[in-house]
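SEQUENCE-TO-STRUCTURE ENTRY
===========================
What this section holds: a protein sequence and its matching fold, both as plain text.
Question of interest: how does this chain fold, as expressed in backbone structure tokens?
***
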Amino acid sequence: KTTTIGKMAAHGSKHHKFHMAAGDTFRAAAVEQLQEWGRRADVPVYAKAQGSDSAAVAFEAYDAARKSDADVLLLDTAGRLHNKGDLMNELAKIGRVLKKQDENAPHDTWLVLDATTGQNALEQARVFNEITPLTGIIVTKLDGSAKAGIVLPLWQKFKLPIMAIGVGEKLEDLQPFDETAFARNLMGLNS
């Protein structure tokens, strides 16, 4: 998730003014990981210490991005653990706090899913969508044996666009989703 945000900022900052915010204050080294991606992408990162209030980070980062005329603010959150009530409550709080800055915020909410997750992805999407309505999905780790067949049931159930896929750890390994290539790969027709 954090790597994906860094890659998105690196690609997008060629055409728009991006900022990132390290709202994953739960996971050890998440803040430092996003700061490293900020250095690589030459994109400012708003961050506080691990354990800080994520909603406060989001609120302050939104304010800072707006004041510097940023076009896009990407907020990393501690969201992978959909079965952890405290983290999901924190995500809901972030949404409420951002609405104090802009009643339409967050403008987009993307769920980043690991291709190896399997059927659990449906439950993750359901829970996240209840907390903060999703506008898209990004599927990562398509560089191994995972074919991410779960993408089809996700689309059928939630009708959310697949925004991008991650096929490796390098910057250029985040790619736009190509449904034809994906379907051919899923059926084993790209060999």
Remarks:
- The chain has a mean pLDDT of 90.
- The radius of gyration is 16 Å.
- Strands lie at 18-23, 45-46, 72-77, 110-114, 136-140, 162-166, 174-176.
